[in-house]
Amino acid sequence: DTAVSQTPKYLVTQMGNDKSIKCEQNLGHDTMYWYKQDSKKFLKIMFSYNNKELIINETVPNRFSPKSPDKAHLNLHINSLELGDSAVYFCATSGGPGTGELFFGEGSRLTVL
Amino acid sequence: GENVEQHPSTLSVQEGDSAVIKCTYSDSASNYFPWYKQELGKRPQLIIDIRSNVGEKKDQRIAVTLNKTAKHFSLHITETQPEDSAVYFCAASRYGNKLVFGAGTILRVKS
């Protein structure tokens, strides 16, 4: 029973399209995150939600819009995809903001052609 | 904001040797310093962490040391094995704030 699950695992799409990545956690954690890992392996936080409330919104193009329908789900919608959006997107959870271990999902590899 | 620098970017060691990865941080108020291991194609996973009230922590073959005055912390892996080959990330945060990761170190253990 996967603690943090993301779908889809792989996504190949054309420039200009809109796509979504979904994340679900069964750990009962209050805080969920989206991280982007680029081709150089750098892990950069994009967004963080605590109890469905947005608490971290890094300098991310407004083409990226997170949505947390409930405490167990955090989705990421990307409009007008660009080549530079190609990356692995990781969902993660923790017991609270900065309170310790991050539990990552398996990642969603997005390739924009 | 916090900035974390990590060195080296790649590290090759012979099986059985030790490996050391070093990180420096900029925010003197940071008090939580975890290390994550990411195997090829897998998710990052926590391997050890240390809080600022502790100078050293060990867990079997891995240990982390923290020097708050110098604002740097290090990961030490002894008796390296091929399965230790992975990307290792250090990170730092102030309690209640976001975790900032270093750029990662690719560790290769040659058998």
Structure description:
- The complex is a heterodimer of chains A (113) and B (111).
- Chain A has no helices and 11 strands.
- Chain A has 113 residues and is mainly beta.
- In chain A, strands 2, 4, 5, 6, 9, 10 and 11 form a 7-stranded mixed β-sheet that branches. Chain A has a 4-stranded antiparallel β-sheet with strand order 1-3-8-7, with no helix packed on it.
- The radius of gyration of chain A is 13 Å and the shape is globular.
- By secondary structure, chain B is an all-beta fold.
- In chain B, 0% of the residues lie in helices and 55% in strands.
- In chain B, a hairpin with a 4-residue loop joins strand 7 and strand 8.
- Chain B is globular, with a radius of gyration of 13 Å.
- At the A-B interface, strand 5 of A face strand 4, strand 5 and strand 10 of B.
Number of helices, where a helix is a run of at least 4 consecutive DSSP H or I residues of chain B: 0
Give the overall shape of chain B.
globular
Tell me the number of strands of chain A.
Answer: 11
Structural class of chain A: mainly beta
Query: Low-confidence spans of chain A: pLDDT under 50, at least 5 residues?
Result: none
Q: What's the helix-strand series of chain B?
A: EEEEEEEEEEE
Order of helices and strands of chain A: EEEEEEEEEEE
Using only CA atoms, what is the Rg of chain B? 13 Å
What is the helix fraction of residues of chain B, given as a range?
under 10%
Strand portion of chain B: over 45%
Distance between the termini of chain A: 34 Å
The total strand number of chain B stands at 11
Low-confidence stretches of chain B: none
Quaternary structure: heterodimer
Q: How far apart lie the N and C ends of chain B?
A: 41 Å
Largest interface: A-B, 20 and 24 residues
